[in-house]
Amino acid sequence: MKRNVVTVCLVLFALALSFNVSSCKGWKLDSERKANEQAGFGKLTNEELENERSQNEAAGLGRICNAEVEKERSENDAAGLGRYTNAEIDAMPLNPRKVPEGYVFVDGGVFQKGDTNAVGEDEWDFEFKTEYKSAASCTFIIGKTEVTQKLYENVIGKNPSTYKGVNKPVHNVSWYDAVEFCNALSKKDNLTPCYSKNSSGKWTWDKNADGWRLPTEAEWQWAAKGGVKSKGYEYSGSNKADDVSWNLMNSSFKPKDVATKSPNELGLYDMSGNVEEWCWDAVCCGGCFLSGDGFGGEITCKVDWGGHPRKPSDSCKLSGILGFRIVRSAPVSIVPNKAMTAGANLKLRSSEATSSNVLTIMQAGTKVKILELGKSETIDGIVSNWVKVEVQADAKDRDGKPIEQGLVGWCYGGYLF
């Protein structure tokens, strides 16, 4: 009997001890959760907090917890740097915190672009093709204003403009003039020029270069619409043309000083109005010109209007005075196992040739994984490689129909970023 009493006492003591230990542990975890929540880390134990930090560090987000990830992304987005953590920004080849004065960082995205009724011509340096209305843009920096006469003359040594003024946009320049300016400024800034002439004398764009260049039409339209900050305005920055543009109704048919109207959502000036602007695709965007014969009709400086084709030798027409603004982007390296994005509706083919069978047409923004590099080729003036790719999850074709995940084919790398 005595032994049984002792046994019962020992059992009760063990249970009490276990209860106290569990209670102590529970109190400790509750205390950790409370302290971490007050510190802004979320209602996590120290172990859970450490796990989140380790996972985010492995993902390249920095050694921070999920709450800190969201906080950094929100703060950087509000500062115009995009929804990135500090670690992601520091790892970028084109760091948005180090944008030169007079330029703006533009985060990439997928959007619907305006029509471009372009037709290739023998005089052009390359055949311009447009078979898509959706497009995707990588991140880049772009001039807040059109290139001024002061900057152009400082780099080139002359000013071809008809209407003089150091702060007016340079105009009466051809596409060739704009390309040569980009190369000259790149050399002056110790950057690698983007453009060169091939053996047949045609200009090509090396996407591995980090120098100044003309925006593509897609980049120009994305920036004009306000990029990820777009509020859907009819004009670039407003629903009222006169707020943001010098146009035929208020400019006396002459270019005006840059940045004298309100900017758009990204802080860019004159994306509607003032001079028309050359793009790499040998089309002009922006400006305000009259439809029809050039002497009557509707003002067409709306952001949904696509670029219109020009011959590269053009410099001035009744429908507009031609200038340009410049951009820079990080060099595009294409290597096996890298994840990349289609910058336009892009054909996936059975082999590395434009004559091969088309398996599907991937929608702009489709994610692919690089499997193999093929031959180098110049297409639409872009120097790049054909690449064998594997389509990733949630891909769609240009008609919005699902593409089988894991589909393998070849596409031209010049349209990937």
Short overview:
The protein is an alpha+beta fold.
Query: Mind summarizing the main beta sheet?
Result: 6 strands, mixed
Distance between the termini: 83 Å
Low-confidence stretches: 115-132, 289-299
Q: State which percent range the strand residues make up.
A: 15-25%
Q: What is the percent of helical residues?
A: 10-25%
Number of helices: 8
Average pLDDT value?
82
Shape designation = globular
Which class best fits the helix and strand makeup?
alpha+beta
Number of strand segments:
18
Succession of helices and strands: HHHHEEEEHHEEHHEEEEEEEEEEEE
Computed over alpha carbons, the radius of gyration is: 28 Å
Topology overview:
Blueprint: H1 2-38, H2 46-58, H3 66-78, H4 86-90, E1 103-106, E2 109-112, E3 134-137, E4 140-143, H5 149-156, H6 175-188, E5 195-197, E6 203-206, H7 217-224, H8 241-244, E7 273-278, E8 283-287, E9 308-309, E10 316-317, E11 320-323, E12 327-328, E13 339-341, E14 346-349, E15 358-362, E16 367-379, E17 382-391, E18 408-412
Parallel strand pairs: 6-17, 7-11
Antiparallel strand pairs: 1-4, 2-3, 4-12, 5-6, 7-8, 8-9, 10-11, 13-16, 14-15, 16-17, 17-18
